[in-house]
Predict the 3D structure of the following.
Amino acid sequence: MFEGLRQHYVNLLTSGGHIVLLFAGFQIDSKEAWPVLLGLISVISFFAWIGNQRRSRLILDTPTSRIVSAAQGYVELTGRARQAHDTPLLSKLTLLPCVWYRYIIEQERSDNKGYDIVEQGTSDDTILIDDGSGQCFIDPDYAEVITRHRQIWKKGNNRYTEYLLSPLDTLYAIGEFTTLGGANSPLDFKDDLNALLTEWKRDKTQLHERFDLNRDGQIDPREWELAVLAAKREVSKQHGEIRLKDGTHLMRKPKDGRLFLLSNLPEENLARKYVLWGWFHLLTFVGACCTAVFMLGA
């Protein structure tokens, strides 16, 4: 479940890739190599621009739904984050109450040139979001998580990093919304009818008491027809009661691969973040292409 902060890392890695390629160009110091390296930079920037553009458009173009009236499918929700269980979730390193955490423990290399990860992990507890109209459980597996709660500290040769979503946060969530039970319960009338009739047949005393109208000790075809009609009425009543109950709302990773994002940042801040990264990659793409063309024609 280490999908959290994925796009943030992608943007940093692509920017780092640009620097590596530029450094390689200066090291090679070849006129023929530069157009190739700039071409690679432009390809990386193009796809990074597409990815950020796609995310910003999804955030801006998907209207915020109320949980009580949200349609089944891809939706955007905003509400107060809450712990979904009676037992509170505590973060791994700081033991702070939270609804989600991620932690990384790194050890400084012996040559003092960076750190190696020695342990990392992410919570998998269900998150509850409440927007005043209703509540929705969120399965955070495979979600991208962007949070303003981050702590980094050093102790000895180790560096510790912890990301949190707090129960006090206003949570933004976009993903696949489904309602389990209630009006959306998958009910099979025929199977339930057969199961009820089979149950009645097992209790012959009760069956004869209810449907052996002439008291001859047998259930004739006419009496059995009455039993079937009674069973149909009972199953219909049961199904009606089930559908009248409130269902359980759940948000999870979309099956079609669309963005599944959780954040305690406002929607406009999230969209702006991706827009700015998109502009950066677009300008890098145009600049690399123009420079490569110029060098080829020189």
Summary: Confidence is low (pLDDT under 50) at residues 1-9. Residues 184-244 form one domain. The first strand starts at residue 73 and ends at 83.
